[in-house]
Design brief:
Layout: E1 5-10, H1 17-28, E2 32-38, H2 40-47, H3 55-63, E3 70-74, H4 80-86, E4 91-95, E5 110-114, H5 122-132
Parallel strand pairs: 1-2, 1-4, 2-3, 4-5
The structure holds cytidine-5'-triphosphate.
């Protein structure tokens, strides 16, 4: 049987259990998991603040996980179709906070949305740590 490549995208800043679970679930859908880690500049543009960990640190952290086979820097939000083609992805996985928003690649690969892990996000972790210091 030909091998099946799964692709997913995210910031993966201040890695938490929600990230681990979606990456594990994504990896279980195929033979090879490739992760697009979003560039620092994209986060500044999108969230108005830089990530806590730099893009090179986030690439290193995510790339060190045993169920992740390869990582690359996602430099533009407009290039999803190019990334899917470049990495020969058969499946694209995202959390269901993105439900429907990746359907525009469904002519290139299967698109799967997994339920988000409840009650945890990078933003909440940062807010929690901030309150500890005040
Ligand atoms: N994710 C998840 N469950 C969570 C948090 C994130 O399944 N509790 C998934 C997202 O749906 C996405 C991937 O993890 O597919 C990367 O999400 P990211 O935006 O990096 O993480 P968040 O914790 O949502 O970050 P933030 O709070 O900065 O938006």
């Amino acid at each position: 049987m030909p091998s099946r490549t799964v692709i997913t995208f995210g910031t993966f800043d201040v890695l938490h259990v929600g990230h681990i679970r979606i990456l594990k679930r994504a990896a279980a859908l195929g033979d090879r998991l490739v992760v697009g880690v979003s560039a620092d500049a994209l986060n500044v543009a999108k969230k108005g603040r830089p990530p806590v960990f730099s893009e090179s640190e986030r690439l290193e952290i995510v790339g060190s996980l045993r169920f992740v086979d390869a990582v690359f820097l996602e430099e533009s939000l407009e290039l999803k179709r190019d990334y899917v083609l470049e990495h020969r992805a058969d499946v694209l996985v995202m959390g269901d906070d993105w439900s429907g928003r990746f359907d525009f690649v469904s002519d290139l690969c299967e698109v799967v949305y997994f339920p988000r892990t409840p009650s945890v996000s990078t933003t909440e972790v940062i807010e929690h740590i901030t309150t500890l210091g005040s």
